[in-house]
Specification:
Strand order of the largest sheet: 1-3-2-4-15-7
Radius of gyration: 21 Å
Number of strands: 15
Helix content: 40-55%
Strand content: 5-15%
Shape: globular
Number of helices: 18
């Protein structure tokens, strides 16, 4: 989920991915809204930088046009700010050094924190209506808290999901469900799949350059470990090392196969299961090549085993039009648009009310795999600071996991990551915390 590739894989091959991002360059989009109802001298123009998660550019333009029709005194300029979250962050960072800063910007799970820590995003609590923000799914909205203030609202949010090929499951004599725990996967599911489908990987997982660190985070939690506890790295703990040894064993036994993009081999029948973002669900389902089932990530009952991910939208601290930007931000993520965005892209509905609409309930009934993803949201956990708050943390951990997949010693590799990351936390983060 960092897009050294993302954030929320390239799919189908690219369009199915977690990032599901489209559009490059920085040419502004004229949304064609009729602002003739307002004196042009009184029109406020705000700029929104996006990578259009889930190939959502046309939808974003549609939502902007609707907003401008309701608010003729505000015009929104949509700018293609990169093909993925990392490119948006790089462009925003460059603009902060002297370029034209946007009013609103898409910020991923691994980029928003450092912008907020360095006072480059505006706190939103006094700009947004508390009665309105109370409707955001708490586990999503509260991820953007630093020093008791919110610095973004959820937008293109996702979780990892366990996908499986129902036909291969049946051929292996497995029940029509995912494994309850990773131990059950290792002891029962993987061996049967390997035997029934000898030329197929039991499970494909994105490699370290494509967010293995995101997917492994749920696995390490399910086994009692963590990347970090608050702002103290903990990959050297016995529980974390045990999880790392389990991961290594999956590659050693041939049960896991790490690939740059997991979706393509899965939908082509080269993998019996895969770990991928919920943002891949719509494309995988519409592909129609295989009979797809979905399940929660394996974890013992009552133990967290799934992180959230994806991106939110924040307001630049340097913006001189924060009130207008906040008005658009609330509209962009209101109940109607949350439903529309979710069903169009495959990302999570970010509002509590969005899940209760008649439209959403009908969609869940027609798309049970998507309901699995929404139901799992209740059991997610905020990501570890060692991955999402440390600059480059996810990439660093992902590279270490690649080494382990290739046979490196787990304890030694995790110890090196702990030492390197803790140094960054102590020098770059802790001095700026309250």
């Amino acid at each position: 989920m960092d897009i050294r590739r993302i954030g929320i894989a390239g799919f189908a091959a690219v369009a199915l991915g977690l990032a599901g991002c489209a559009g490059t360059g920085s040419a502004p989009t004229d949304n064609g809204a009729d602002n003739s109802g307002a004196d042009q001298a009184d029109v406020t123009t705000i700029e929104f930088w996006s990578n259009h998660p889930g190939s959502s550019k046309a939808l974003e333009e549609e939502m902007i046009a609707a907003f401008e029709a309701e608010n003729p005194d505000i015009k929104v300029k949509l700018t293609d700010a990169g093909k993925n979250y990392e490119e948006v962050a790089q462009k925003f960072n460059a603009a902060l050094s002297g370029g034209q800063v946007p009013d609103l910007v898409v910020a991923s799970d691994v980029t928003w924190f450092n912008f907020a820590l360095n006072d480059q995003l505006a706190p939103l609590d006094e700009l947004l209506d508390p009665a309105d923000t109370a409707d955001y799914v708490p586990s999503l909205y509260d991820e953007y808290v630093l020093n008791d203030k919110h610095f973004a609202v959820p937008y293109a949010r996702s979780t990892p999901l366990f996908y499986y090929n129902k036909d291969m499951w049946q051929a292996a004599g497995l029940p029509d469900r995912g494994p309850n725990t990773w131990q059950e996967w290792n002891d029962e599911f993987a061996p049967k799949l390997a035997q029934a489908n000898p030329n197929v990987a039991p499970l494909v997982i994105p490699d370290g350059s494509s967010y293995m660190d995101w997917y492994f985070q749920g696995m390490i939690w399910s086994m009692g470990g963590a990347y970090s506890k608050d702002y103290t790295m903990s990959m050297s703990s016995p529980e974390s090392v045990k999880a790392g040894e389990f991961l290594k064993s999956q590659f050693d036994q041939g049960y896991f196969k790490a690939v740059k993009e997991a979706t393509a081999p899965f939908v082509s029948g080269q993998g019996a299961a895969m770990l991928e973002s919920t943002g891949s669900l719509k494309g995988v389902s519409e592909d129609g090549k295989i009979n797809v089932g979905t399940a929660f990530l394996p974890t013992p009952e009552g133990v967290p085993g799934c992180p959230t991910g994806g991106a939110g939208v924040g307001i630049a601290a340097k913006s001189e039009k924060k009130e207008a930007a906040a008005k658009f931000l609330a509209f962009l993520t209101n109940t109607e648009n949350a439903v529309k965005f979710s069903q169009s892209t495959g990302y999570m509905p970010v509002r509590i009310s969005a899940k209760e609409t008649d439209e959403a309930k009908k969609y869940f009934e027609e798309n049970p795999n998507f309901k699995t993803a929404v139901d799992q949201l209740e059991f997610t956990q905020k990501q570890d600071a060692g991955r999402v708050y440390v600059s480059g943390g996810g990439m660093r951990i992902g590279a270490a996991l690649d080494k382990i997949a290739q046979g490196a010693d787990v304890a030694q590799t995790f110890k090196q990551i702990d030492e390197e990351q803790q140094g960054i936390i102590d020098s770059d983060i802790k001095p700026k915390l309250q």
